[in-house]
Amino acid sequence: MSRHSQVLATPHKDRRDLHNLRMMLSFLAEYRGRALFAIVCLVFAKVANVGIPLLLKQIVDAMEKSGTAALVLPVSLLLGYGLLRLSSSLFNELRDVVFARVRFNAMRMLSRKVLEHLHQLALRFHLERRTGAISRDLERGTRSVSTILNYMTFSILPLLIEFTLVAIVLLTMYDPIFTQVTFGTVAVYIFFTVMVTKWRMEFRHSMNRLESEANAQAFDSLINYETVKYFGNEQLELQRFDNTLFQWEESAVKSQSSMSLLNFGQGAIIAIGVTIIMFLAADGVVAGEMSIGDLVMVNAFLLQLFIPLNFLGMVYRQVMYSMADMDLVFKLLELEPEVQDQPGARELALTGGEIRFNQVEFSYQDDRQILHGVDFTVRPGEKVAIVGRSGAGKSTLSRLLFRFYDVSGGSVTIDGQDVRSLTQESLRAAIGIVPQDTVLFNDSILYNLRYGRPDASMDEIREAAAMAHIDEFIDSLPQGYDTVVGERGLKLSGGEKQRVAIARAILKRPRIMLFDEATSSLDSATEQAIQETLRDVAQNHTTLVIAHRLSTVVDADRILVMEQGRIVEQGRHQELLQQDGRYSEMWQLQREDQRTGAYQSQTE
Question: Is residue 423 exposed (0-12), middle (13-18) or buried (19+ Cβ within 10 Å)?
């Protein structure tokens, strides 16, 4: 398993909760003034809340002393009581309104930063990741920031402030035993909650892991829908998905059962604490040491403390779960991109667009080398083709040119500038590519075409589409350029997707063109037309063509034949045929395949 996979697969180990909280708080910097104002509103709300039982005691004591004869003082106290309740509600709602911008902005900024970081990570990470699992993890991780901020601002901090204010009142007005019993109950409650929740956390982690795994399996089966149908393996996919969900179900049942145990224990602790306090207060009233108002006030304080405390267990569980989810995101953000701009990297200064592979060595893994001393030059305006069997290392050259990976040895240069010394943005802006496997966004044809150059005019887009021989097809569609192509472009045929890719590359107007099996999905008639287009596009461009079908590169200025990561032959088409080597053998085999295919077509 790769280091990236290990980081995302073990969310509950080696967590750094304080570190993560500091990271989370950094996302509040933009609206720290609002956050501070929200805390001020919170303090005012709790002061008003604690004042309510105090005023209630005064009302009861006043009525006990004066009976029903004098109503002036109780009326004013009742008005004050109503004003305190109104103030508590006002400041609570004001806190919510003020803090909403802080919380949702933090979510937006974190989501943006995660997506930006994912785009910066190297191709190796994206080839190893499982889209379904990571999307689910990121969704939970981003949501966890909102959850933690929500509970800190609306549950934990208010409870701490209220505890502090109540402690001050109890210590200054009553026997210390009341404070001792009240906060002794709180301490036992918190200890019990923490210990049981820690035990339960393993069930939650198991649920998260299995949920992500099931989600990834479902994504895989849907992305590979056609393959599933080809082999009739719907039941196999369902069984695999259901097996994972069954394990998730077992963990979920254990989680729910242990939560019931936790809830009962918490309720029992609160019930015992409240009962002891009421006995003490009632005894004080009987002994004449406390008034009925004192009894009412103590009871009101207990209700205000223990009712929210009853939710503290749920808050603690959610915060712990959210901490685990948030840890996934921050560990991801701390992954160092494998390919980075060097300090002081400069922008590519294009002159002629000469490409030079100088004794390039490369391996994806240490134990399997892909390229061995590859050495060639593509001069400005030249068209060079690279051919060879699958696995010979052809596509690896294009990835090194784009700097999706860095070479293990040697260098790749453009106009004498080592690509490792350049900014990745300027490097990739100078290269246009038509890949073999064209993947389109699930958006309109127009969006996918304009992706080559977002500021292109509609006339320029239509011109590029015409050059790629896809304009008539687009115009024939009911929604034309607004036609949505579906997930990964599945609503279009392979040939149609490739022509969109060709038009997109033309629209980019790069100095260097790279064609990776650019016509592999086209029929013969369309391929001939596209070849003419590619020849026109290649003029005045430095062009590198990776091809399997040799018939598509016979006009190349030079053809490089690769085998097992080495260049074994090079020259023009006729020169290579005369050498009677590997290229000549491949040419004869493909000619034979074409003749066999033509014969079969005629006899069917």
Answer: middle
In degrees, to the nearest 5, what angle opens at C-alpha 524 toward C-alphas 472 and 443?
40
List own/partner pairs for 531-540 with CB under 8 A and 24 or more apart. 533/467, 533/468, 533/469, 533/502, 534/502, 536/467, 537/467, 537/505, 537/506, 537/513, 538/383, 538/513, 539/381, 540/381
4 band by pLDDT with thresholds 50, 70 and 90: very low
Domain with CATH 3.40.50.300 in the chain: 351-430+538-604, 434-509
Q: What is the pLDDT of residue 150?
A: 82
Residue 270, pLDDT > 50, answer yes
- For residue 39, the one-letter residue type is I
Strands (E), 82-229: none
Does domain 351-430+538-604 fall under CATH 3.40.50.2300? My reply is no
pLDDT, residue 384, reads: 92
For residue 417, with 0-12 CB atoms within 10 Å meaning exposed, 13-18 middle and 19 or more buried, which class applies? buried
> β-pairing, 512-516 with 542-547?
parallel
pLDDT for 289: 82
- Mean pLDDT is highest, among 55-64, 169-178, 185-194, 580-589, for 580-589
Q: How far apart are CA 435 and CA 438, in angstroms?
A: 6
CATH architecture, domain defined by 434-509? 3-Layer(aba) Sandwich (3.40)
| pLDDT of res. 524 | 66
Q: What SS3 state is found at 392?
A: coil
Residue-averaged pLDDT of the chain? 82
Of the candidates 152, 196, 188, 366, the residue with the CA atom closest to the CA atom of residue 276: 188
Q: How far is CA 158 from the centre of its chain?
A: 32
Question: Coil, strand, or helix at residue 502?
Answer: helix
> Given 1.25.40.20, 1.20.1560.10, 3.30.360.10, 1.10.150.120, which CATH number is that of 3-333?
1.20.1560.10
Give the residue among 245, 300, 244, 302 at the shortest CA–CA distance from 271. 302
Instruction: Note if the pTM is more than 0.70.
Output: no
